[in-house]
Amino acid sequence: MSVRDNRREAALERMADHLLLQGLSGASLRPLAAAAGTSDRMLLYYFKDKDELLTATLGRVTARLAGLLDDAAPGQKPFATLLVELWAAFRSPALQPYMRLWIELAARAARDEMPHRAIAGEIADGFHAWAADRLQVEREADRLPLAALLLATVDGLALLDAVGRGGMADSAASAAAAARLPRPQR
Fold first, then answer.
1. Which CATH number do you get for residue 92?
2. Is position 7 within any domain?
3. pLDDT band for position 154 (cuts 50, 70, 90)
4. Which of 38, 64, 169, 179 has the smallest set of CB atoms within 10 Å of its CB?
């Protein structure tokens, strides 16, 4: 790796820490540069533009989260088991900053803000694939729809938790894990 690549990687790590702490309100160029320990001009030497910088930094945050989730829910599991393990992980203090950042990113994407919408879509696709890889299913045709349901359920639980309804989210997680999922009609 070149010196430039090493510095870019170090900057990404520090900027990822910054976003997890400050959220997207801290995602303007100067605060990101300060967090990276460099100038905003140097950041633009490492990255083509602010969109690429934000995409790379949120990609780093996402990669960290995927690693944490790999540890929290290793191997393939049925939907209910995976849901319970993921929700327990997301309720932990270590993963709360990731969910707050995700909700903030999703809100900006919902307002059709760019590059937030494109970045959020890529992250959602990545976690859909992550969930599909970890789901233990009876029928292969159920894998992708159940992965989407898992993603939607966890995001809904996180939203309830974010608005101060953690107890409601916990009850919903228990109910979702206990529910018998209907089989699609052929």
1. 1.10.357.10
2. yes
3. very high
4. 179
